[in-house]
Structures are given as structure tokens and as C-alpha cells.
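User: Hi! I'm working on a homework problem where we have to compare a predicted structure to a textbook description. Could you give me the structure for the chain below?
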Amino acid sequence: MRRQRMNDICPHCGFRFEIEPGYFYAAMYVSYGISMAQLIAVGLLTYALTRSESPWVYLIALLVTTVVSAPFNYRYSRLILLHCLTPKVKYDPKYEDELI
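Assistant: Happy to help. Predicted C-alpha cells:
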């Protein structure tokens, strides 16, 4: 199993990803927003498919969603926040061919 790890330095342009104080707190808010959107969508989808009145159906669906999407939320909440906080870092298509 691969650990969730982000690069300290961009392998293409050499940009150093330095994390300022409070970055992880802000990333938690972004992760919370992503998680809530996922849980609302799964809850509504579960209702639409099952029309169940049992809270256990919803609890199981939401717990499975939370566990399965945790790695996604962990990584992408930090990337979204990094993108929002550093607008000077832009996509450069000349590095696209160098991807492994």
C-alpha cells in the first residue's frame, strides 16, 4: 500500500512547496466541505434508490463513503487549497511530455 505523500519540490519546475502556519487547519475546512458534499449526494442517492426508513441503511452508506473517499479528500483538499493560495503557480504545457 502506498502512503499518501506530497512532493516537497516540484519535479518539473523546482518550485518548493512550503507550508505556512495554519495551512493544515485551512485544508481541514476544505476537506470538510468536500466530505459534506459527498455525504449529501450519497444520502440523497441512497434515498432515491432504496426509499428506506431504516437509519442503518443510511449510516452504512455514509460510513462506507467516508472511509472510501478519505484518501481522495486528504490529497485533493490540500491541492485545492494550495491552488487557491498560490495563484502564481500556473500550468505549463511544455512539461506535459516529460511526465512518466
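For your comparison, note the following. The chain has a mean pLDDT of 84. The two ends are 20 Å apart (CA to CA). Good luck with the assignment!
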